[in-house]
């Protein structure tokens, strides 16, 4: 992830040689990551590198182009949610007494959505946002809890400071959802999920960048319900007094 710019142009033989492994080992590696083969893996790296270098403000020529890009971000995100990561998340969730959600301001809506989703499953969930709520969370969280951090950049200082305070005093299991590319939050996590986001996200101007993150949350919740309740369950209606279009 730290060398996408150079790796994206290497053949399988060149990269295998530089990593001191066989081409067969390299193929097994990319398939375990969820890709069909080496070409699929390289194409994704090129797409990621291109997105990172693109202008901050997206230029949509038409409604269809916008919709194509919107759907593509979600599809690419879900393609790399591996079964192994889902299994690990289920193990962490099963042994957690509470869930604490930590997010930056641009991911606040995704954190609120996560709160509704996990509360529906019967978990005790907290999403501190105000300074006094964050201070309380730092005091209350324990090693038996699950800390979920949502940040598309993975570098937001306020989130990192709160996260470091928690980890310095307690040691809860930490799961994060961040954008592609090496970042502080990802590297600190016990488990990380990548979300493809539009470059405009980093300017705070593209709300569609939150959609891939919310898609991951839905997969985490749905897969937990399916595995622990014997299969897909009936979708519950929204709480009384809310718009019925907002369903889990």
Automatic annotation (TrEMBL):
<dbReference type="InterPro" id="IPR001347">
    <property type="entry name" value="SIS_dom"/>
</dbReference>
<dbReference type="Pfam" id="PF01380">
    <property type="entry name" value="SIS"/>
</dbReference>
<dbReference type="InterPro" id="IPR036388">
    <property type="entry name" value="WH-like_DNA-bd_sf"/>
</dbReference>
<dbReference type="InterPro" id="IPR046348">
    <property type="entry name" value="SIS_dom_sf"/>
</dbReference>
<protein>
    <submittedName>
        <fullName>MurR/RpiR family transcriptional regulator</fullName>
    </submittedName>
</protein>
<dbReference type="InterPro" id="IPR047640">
    <property type="entry name" value="RpiR-like"/>
</dbReference>
<dbReference type="Pfam" id="PF01418">
    <property type="entry name" value="HTH_6"/>
</dbReference>
<dbReference type="InterPro" id="IPR035472">
    <property type="entry name" value="RpiR-like_SIS"/>
</dbReference>
<dbReference type="InterPro" id="IPR000281">
    <property type="entry name" value="HTH_RpiR"/>
</dbReference>
<keyword id="KW-0805">Transcription regulation</keyword>
<dbReference type="InterPro" id="IPR009057">
    <property type="entry name" value="Homeodomain-like_sf"/>
</dbReference>
<feature type="domain" description="HTH rpiR-type">
    <location>
        <begin position="1"/>
        <end position="52"/>
    </location>
</feature>
<keyword id="KW-0238">DNA-binding</keyword>
<keyword id="KW-0804">Transcription</keyword>
């Amino acid at each position: 992830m730290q060398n996408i710019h150079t790796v994206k142009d290497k053949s399988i033989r060149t990269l295998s040689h530089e990593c001191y492994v066989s081409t067969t080992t390299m193929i097994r590696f990319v398939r375990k990551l969820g890709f069909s083969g080496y070409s699929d893996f390289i194409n994704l790296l090129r797409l990621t590198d291109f997105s990172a270098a693109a202008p901050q403000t997206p230029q949509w020529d038409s409604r269809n182009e916008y919709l194509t890009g919107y759907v593509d971000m979600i599809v690419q995100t879900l393609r790399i949610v591996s079964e192994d990561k889902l299994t690990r998340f289920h193990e962490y969730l099963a042994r957690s007494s509470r869930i604490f959600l930590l997010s930056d301001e641009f991911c606040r809506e995704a954190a609120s959505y996560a709160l509704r989703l996990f509360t529906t499953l019967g978990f005790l969930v907290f999403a501190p946002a105000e300074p006094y709520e964050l201070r309380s969370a730092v005091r209350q969280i324990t090693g038996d809890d699950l800390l979920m951090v949502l940040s598309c950049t993975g570098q937001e200082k306020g989130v990192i400071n709160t996260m470091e305070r928690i980890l310095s005093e307690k040691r809860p299991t930490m799961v994060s959802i961040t954008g592609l590319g090496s970042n502080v939050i990802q590297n600190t996590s016990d488990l990380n999920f990548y979300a493809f986001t539009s470059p405009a996200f980093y300017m705070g101007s593209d709300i569609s960048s939150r959609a891939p993150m919310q898609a991951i949350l839905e997969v985490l919740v749905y897969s937990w319900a399916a595995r622990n309740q014997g299969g897909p369950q009936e979708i519950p209606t929204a709480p009384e007094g809310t718009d019925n279009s907002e369903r889990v």
